[in-house]
Structure prediction request, 683 residues.
Amino acid sequence: MTTIQQTMSVARRSTARAGTRARRLIGGASIQGRLVRNFSLAILVPALVTSLVGVGVIRQRVFVQAQAQVDSDLQAAKDIYQSSLDRLNNAIRIHATRMVIYGALARRDLSGLAEEMDRIRQAERLDVLTLTDASGHAFYRSRNPNEAATGEVTDDIVVRAMKELSPIASTEVVAAAELNRETPTLARQASMTIAPTPRARPRTDTQVTSGMMLTAAAPVFTPAGRHLGVLYGGVLLNRNYEVVDKIRRTVFKEESYEGLPIGTATIFQGDVRISTNVRNADGTRAIGTLASAEVTDLVLDRGATWTGRAFVVNDWYLSAYSPITNLNGQNIGMLYVGVLERPYMDALWRTLFLFLGIALGGVALVHLVAVRVARRISGPIHAMAEAAQRVEQGDYSQKVPTGSQDELGDLAHNFNAMTSELERTHQALQESAGELERKVEQRTAELRAIQAHLIQSEKLAAVGKLAAGVAHEINNPLTGILTNSSLMLEDIEPDHPWRDDIQTIVNETLRCRNIVKGLLDFARQTKPQRTLINMNDVAEEVLSLVRNQASFRGIRVTGQLDPDLPTVLADNDQMRQVVLNIVLNAGEAMAQGGELRVTSKVDATQKGIELRISDSGPGIPNDVKARLFEPFFTTKKAGTGLGLAIAYGIMERHKGQLRVDTAQGRGTTFTIALPIRGPVDDD
Prediction:
């Protein structure tokens, strides 16, 4: 419907331009003597030419806009395809860190692994889920456990993940033998007969036996960082319509025209359709049909994107094709989206008939009345047409004479009233648009801040749960190591050659225990024990603790604490922990000396207080600032990276805020913001 409205709008503009030319002829002096003789020819020819040219211009504009929309739809389809690959990559990466996975590899024991691998495969809707050992040999195949030890897994993605020791995902073509090794069901799903297709590239084979898969692999490590193997998963795209149907639902809203879907999507393996919602004449999906040779040459051979008008299976579409590459950058398939051409052509034919009908009807009508009214209306109409043209160009101050007392005078009066109202309305719309734009920008900024806050909160909660599990699992072994190594150190002779090694074990175990303690502090999220406290007192107490430390001897501490600062309802120990963490970080940032400034005040809303801690250090780069409150992220050679994450969590539980203002070369300021009345509860 939108396309027809656009077409009609262009038609009205074309007719208006033709009418303007006709009115100019009417206003000329020579029209009076020759109007009857020449009118038919003078009106009919321009009307027909205008109609044909107008339809041609409309067709070009409509198809250019439609093709641009198809290009946009292709990008949206690529995003949906990539999101499916990213979801698979994230799932494999997360499951590779599970204890049941690395535990089975570490023990070389399959007990309990089969049930968990099957549960993961079904929950993530995977066709393949395989676990290999560190040498690249299959340890367990969830679809075919009896084939676990049939040799080395040579898939490029597994080899790359094992070499780079990092998660990786890509689209790959898997041979029939490998599919059979996983399960014959996959080999049967991938196999399809190639259907003869007009305009396709000639080929000698008649059967597709390999399959195209979304694949992902992630290395498996122990908590101590020892590499044990690779977890590998995949989703077979052959006869799997989830991605293409999602593209149709999301991009084209499942719209149809005369019983045919307006938008379609296809995934090609090479030039063969393996997943599509393009239909054959009998209504079945056009699996096994081929792309045209022209598309295949450009997209598969040259790696370029093909856009244009194409005959797809049994109808014409405005189409776009993009290559799908594998891990090695080879073009192994194509992603296609297309929009049915028929609605646009039907709209153009209707527009052409409408133009011709309007032109012929206008010629007949004007011919009947022109002789009688030409002299009376030519002058005022000409003036009004000129004024209307200037109004169309944006000059709403136009006025025409209203000297006559007949209908033309009334029309001129109404025209003047209309232009006055248009001028007033245009000015009001400009003012409203400016105000609306300001409000939209303000609201957008607020929504972005809220979104960033929610993402950080969810991230801290998820990592907290993981940290608690990891810490509890390794705390008991660490205690045993520390106890026995300490006893050995006491019993061994001072000059024994093993003494230094055992001392190293004790020191490193103590360091690990401190890391575990930090993990537990981060995950515990102790409920605040709120009392009325003064943040000035907290700041002064922390400064008195660190002032005489060696790292602060070259630092000048200044401040301007508000003596009338209201008390707040907060946990004194947790607030001291937040302030101490920030102050210590500031001291480390000013290792060569500098100024530490602490100020406090009531915020602008009079509903909260702010404690600001500023240093004159080198500042924080933007890429580090974006990850400042992430758990385990640190730029220090030693440290767990939990300090600011714990402080952020404490402020969250107090319904307060921890903000940072920094830039390279001008220091860093942390602001601790707390409500004066405090939260109602700790839910």
The first strand starts at residue 128 and ends at 133. The domain at 531-675 is CATH 3.30.565.10 (Heat Shock Protein 90).
